[in-house]
Design a protein that fits this description.
alpha/beta; Rossmann fold
């Protein structure tokens, strides 16, 4: 399925099928070591669930999403909190001031950029982060490089069935479309993109052969 974010029904379906328990966002906040005084950038903020968790701690935050419907839900959730700024923008159009952010988070969003676009995006956005800033990327991260996708397809589908369990059939078409028509990538490609923004990868958390996270630090 092509997630056309100009269709408001897609936001509702996504939030239903891919609902995330709060404890997962709390774990992400802990890995980011959120602290008072932090300024956070949430890329692909969706309906504001992570922002709501982060704003229990950080001093300010910005959430970026291309979906007007998702941003409306985020605005309602955050109830006019003056510490947060919501931005409707495509990632490649984002233009932030240098030295603005000390923390960043992106979950299931940056795989919409191909490998070249990932490099361009991080190159442009990198200066917006302070030295020592932490970036937690949680997304489609393959054990193999994208060029080997078809060779690994059978094993990948078996891993998906095991990972999603009883929810696999409801997600199978979406996930297959994502793998083939969007741009999850291997660790090497994600690392190169982060390096283009001046980040070094500190650690990888592997949840499956196709999903996990990278924690990176701005040099």
């Amino acid at each position: 399925m092509d997630w056309n974010w100009s269709d408001k029904n897609n936001a509702s379906r996504y939030n239903s099928v891919y609902a995330t328990p709060e404890e997962e966002f709390l774990a992400c906040a802990a890995r980011l070591r959120l602290a008072p005084g932090d300024s956070l950038l949430d890329l692909g903020c969706g309906n504001g669930e992570f922002l709501a968790v982060a704003l229990r701690t950080v001093s300010s935050a910005a959430g970026v999403d291309v979906s007007a419907e998702q941003l409306a839900l985020a605005a309602a959730r955050l109830n006019g909190d003056p510490r947060v700024r919501l931005v409707k923008a495509a990632f490649l159009d984002l233009d932030e001031k240098p030295g603005t952010y000390s923390k960043a988070f992106s979950r299931k969003a940056l795989h919409h950029l191909d490998d070249g676009q990932k490099i361009s995006f991080f190159s442009k956005l990198g200066p917006a982060f302070k030295p020592g800033a932490l970036f937690l990327l949680e997304d489609g991260i393959f054990d193999f490089e994208r060029a080997d996708l078809e060779a690994n397809w059978g094993a990948l589908m078996r891993d998906c069935a095991a990972y999603y369990g009883t929810g696999w059939q409801a997600k199978k078409d979406d996930v297959s479309f994502c793998f083939r028509r969007e741009y999850p990538a291997g660790v090497k490609a994600w690392t190169a993109a982060l390096q283009a923004g001046g980040f070094r990868v500190l650690e990888r958390e592997r949840r499956s052969s196709f999903y996990g996270s990278l924690l990176a630090e701005k040099l």
